[in-house]
Amino acid sequence: MKIRNLIAVLALLGTATGAQGADWLAQVNQCIAQGEFARAEKIMDKLPRKTRTAEAVRIDSLLTIMERIRKDFNLTPEQGVALIRERMPEATDAQIANWKATRKLEVMNIDGQEWWFRKSVRNLWLLGDEFAQANEQERQETYATRSRYFRQAMRTAADRHGVRDWRRANITFTLDVDADAVPAGERLRVWMPFPYENERQRNIHYVEGNHPATMSQDSKHHTVYMEAVAEAGKPTHFEYTFTYEVGERHIAQQDLLALVEPYRTDTELYRTYTASEAPHMIVTDKMRDLARRIVGDEENPVMQAYKVYQWISRTYPWAGAREYSTLANIPQYVLDNGHGDCGQVTLLYITLVRALGIPARWESGWMLHPGEVNWHDWGETYFEGVGWVPTDQSFGRSAIDTPMDAYYATGIDVYRMATNEGVGDRLSPPKTFIRSETVDFQPGEVEWRGGNLYYDHWHSHLEVNGITPLGSLIQ
């Protein structure tokens, strides 16, 4: 694993001021790049008191990132090998060495010791060539389920925006902070997800909650904010219920080809959504070259975007992800490691199509499919003459070589709750300390005056109380 990929994460933390500040920060960056975490901590510990005071939040964030990396890479090689041989006793040392060399097993050297990613053994069965047949069978089963959702939607009439299968969702979200996670009497600050209005979501209503709630303002992460005082020996419970209407939307490829127009490149929309967006959507010459190789001689933006979508779907299998906050450039991570989860391949898609001059942007939240309620990330692609259309790069992998091969390139099913229309934005009200998730926002965020509370101090849950069909009338 290239530890250099961690360093641009520090751009999220700002830049140090003054020569002395720049010097210590550069030294710490170098230490992290070399896997010398103990030395990095020692440098920060020996800073003058004045510097430590002025840079307290930055230092806390640097220490937090290293702590998260250690938590992600917490298996010794011996433990990892034992886990592999529990499931595959015949695995040889040579096979294991090859899996490491080809990054089917993700490892990192920290302070002179090799550590395995905590999900690396589980991921091996998704990535290893030896397990391709079983994975293909599972993919076909996933496709069969998702095709039923498509057929269900197509039995209803579309409105003027092409949205159909409108339903009313009733959701309860809860977040519980562990007892004594903070001292009694301390105030907890909590941000939790909430849907926003777009072509596929409407009539959003906050119903009730167990603490006073504030809705986010001017943030790409739409949230419910609450506060509560911690009591000794008791978990702190946050809960709210809301409703919204959600629909399925897709634009068939043949319709897009008939409607698409040349881009108006002088608009703010075009300039914004074809530009680099640090730290993850960086349009470099290498990205442009890769994008051009993928699309070849194709010049139609609809088909260019589809070729990128297909290439990613066929090239990068799904695997459990590292914490996004520890990755410097997520699309590059996918290219380097040969796999990616939903958000990682979505960021790669957005970057590549932007490199072709096709506007694209992030959208994410939750997937609400029966039996599959979970966090999920996808995107949107803009075609002149049509507007923004949804693109679920990750779901595209289940539809390869099926009648729905192009569906998720320009469509999305009804079982969604979109809460984010961008990445890495400031929360509302602003958060003081580094977020547990610096890119996306789904499970929530928690902090108190002593710092951020990471996932191991709390847990959240989304309960789907119902998703009820509204009927098939054209709106």
Helix content: 25-40%
Mean of residue pLDDT values: 93
Rg for CA atoms: 23 Å
CATH class of the largest domain: Alpha Beta
For the termini, the CA-CA separation is 52 Å
Along the chain, the helix and strand elements come as HHHHHHEEHHEEEEEEHHHHHHEEEEEEEE
Work out the strand percent: 15-25%
What profile does the largest beta sheet have? 5 strands, antiparallel
Can you walk me through this structure?
This protein is an alpha+beta fold. The protein has three domains: 3-72, no CATH class; 166-247 and 441-469, Immunoglobulin-like (Sandwich); 252-409, C8orf32 fold, CATH 3.10.620.30. It is built from 14 helices and 16 strands. Strand 6 (214-215) and strand 7 (223-229) form a beta hairpin. It is globular.
How would you summarize the topology of this molecule?
Elements: H1 19-33, H2 37-45, H3 49-54, H4 56-72, H5 77-87, H6 93-101, E1 107-110, E2 113-116, H7 120-127, H8 132-153, E3 163-177, E4 187-193, E5 201-209, E6 214-215, E7 223-229, E8 236-250, H9 253-259, H10 268-273, H11 285-295, H12 301-315, H13 330-337, H14 342-355, E9 360-367, E10 374-383, E11 387-391, E12 411-412, E13 416-420, E14 445-448, E15 451-453, E16 458-469
Antiparallel strand pairs: 1-2, 3-8, 3-16, 4-7, 4-14, 5-8, 6-7, 8-12, 9-10, 9-13, 10-11, 14-15
Helix pairs in contact: 1-2, 11-14, 12-14, 13-14
